[in-house]
Design brief:
mainly alpha
Length: about 80
């Protein structure tokens, strides 16, 4: 199962996922069908909403999430 479809199932459907993200269901449907990629800015919210069952790295593998996570940790420590 593709990660965004897994997230959809965990959250309770395409409409529920879209509502959670403040988007229209056709936008999320486009991600699920593979017509459009999941934008990186939505990945952290999806990861949180799925309690980590769907990771940012799975949703948008071309982003260096390890680097971004380390920067977030550094910012908290400062």
């Amino acid at each position: 199962m593709i990660p965004i479809a897994k997230a959809r199932d965990i959250i309770g459907g395409t409409s529920a996922l879209a509502k959670m993200l403040g988007l229209q269901p056709p936008t999320v449907s486009g991600w699920i069908s593979g017509k459009r990629p999941v934008p990186a800015e939505h990945c952290p919210a999806i990861e949180r909403a799925t309690a980590g069952a769907v990771k940012c790295e799975e949703l948008c593998p071309d982003v260096d999430w390890g680097y971004l996570r380390s920067k977030k940790t550094e910012a908290r420590a400062a």
